[in-house]
Design goal:
With 172 residues, the protein is mainly alpha-helical. It is built from six helices and no strands. Helix 1 packs parallel to helix 3, helix 2 runs antiparallel to helix 3 and helix 5 crosses helix 6. The longest helix has 39 residues.
């Protein structure tokens, strides 16, 4: 009875997003990931994807916490997926939890920097009740332009104040 061994699947052949749920996909990829003491250079793309995906998964809850009143709704499926992804690149449940907390801080930073866009989209969604991709793009472009204009006005006002202050020093 000779058995033909199947070639070991490679990570590069797997799709990271799409038709599979995160936990089942992570179960497939998990055995292919390097051990904590092994080089991770060959799976850097997996690490980058996990980082981005976990930040995305926790951003909904963090956005609710930042922009809505009351305690956010617990997104059980997002949390389950975040833990499955984090477990791919960490060596213990405690480190996966820490990775998720890091992603929460990262999501807050991104949402804070983009709050003008989030608020513009939310305002427009309250009015329209629905938007397609083209409408979203227009709102984002308008919010970015308005933010740039606001920053430029602030810069000019600060320059004007400095000029006045400098003139006062010269005359004293």
């Amino acid at each position: 009875d000779r058995r033909v061994s199947q070639p070991k699947p490679t990570i590069s052949g797997l799709r990271l997003a799409g038709e599979h749920s995160a936990p089942s996909l992570c179960e497939q990829i998990g055995p292919l990931m390097p051990q904590p003491v092994d080089s991770r250079a060959d799976v850097a793309d997996i690490f980058l994807h996990v980082h981005s995906r976990v930040v995305e998964l926790v951003a909904g809850t963090e956005g609710e916490r930042m922009f809505c009143k009351g305690e956010p709704w617990f997104a059980a499926d997002d949390e389950r997926q975040a833990f499955a992804y984090a477990s791919l690149v960490t060596s213990s449940p405690a480190s996966a939890a820490s990775f998720i907390e890091f992603a929460r801080v990262e999501a807050i930073a991104v949402l804070t920097a983009s709050s003008h866009i989030v608020l513009a989209l939310a305002d427009e969604l309250r009015i329209r009740r629905t938007m397609d991709g083209a409408a979203i793009d227009v709102i984002i472009a308008r919010a970015v332009a308005m933010q740039s204009l606001k920053i430029e006005h602030q810069r000019r006002e600060e320059w004007k104040q400095r000029t006045v202050s400098a003139a006062a020093l010269v005359h004293d």
